[in-house]
Amino acid sequence: TLLYSLDQHGISFNTFYACSEQPKPPNALVIIKDDSDTIFGTFVGDIIWKSRRRGYYDTGESYVVSPSPFPPLTLRRFLWRYSNHKLSMYKPTGCNSYIALCEPDYLSFGGRDDGVYGLYIDKSLLEGPSARCVTFGNDILCSPRRVRAGGAVGFECIRLEVWRVG
């Protein structure tokens, strides 16, 4: 079920959270298409909700079947990238517990101790960076066009959707 879409719901972080904070089932798939037509995102085995307390969260094991054109997959939480008809998935490495952090001004998935994230979306919902991170052992998810500090690469978000799965 589609919970939120930039196209349908507009560009509002408060609307994003209001639409995404659906209690059941709690699994959420965040899909982003950047300005180079690269598609990437994350599956979170929990509700995407604005943190009422500081800190990362994740409930543990959840399973999804990915939407077409992806093949059916049984997964836990992960970051992923689909480009040039190739799907890359990155599961947690166990090196840290920086799975999901949903704050009033941003969303982040995966992280490093230096403040660089596997996937970061700012409150405008229109841009953010992606970087390699130890949480998922991932490569950069977006198109490598705008290099930022810490080895992160910036992206412009053309489409953003949140789907409830399960």
Automatic annotation (TrEMBL):
Pfam families per the UniProt record, alphabetical: TLD
Annotated keywords: Mitochondrion
Major localization listed first in the record, in broad terms: mitochondrion
Listed PANTHER family: MUSTARD, ISOFORM V, NUCLEOLAR PROTEIN 7/ESTROGEN RECEPTOR COACTIVATOR-RELATED
Presence of the UniProt keyword Transmembrane helix in the record: no
Gene Ontology biological process: response to oxidative stress
Location of this chain's protein in the cell: Mitochondrion
Protein name: Oxidation resistance protein 1
One GO location term (cellular component): mitochondrion
Domain TLDc per the UniProt entry, residue ranges: 1-166
UniProt entry tagged with the keyword Hydrolase: no
InterPro entries to which the protein is assigned, alphabetical: TLDc_dom
PROSITE patterns the record matches: TLDC (PS51886)
UniProt similarity note: Belongs to the OXR1 family.
Highest taxon, organism lineage: Eukaryota
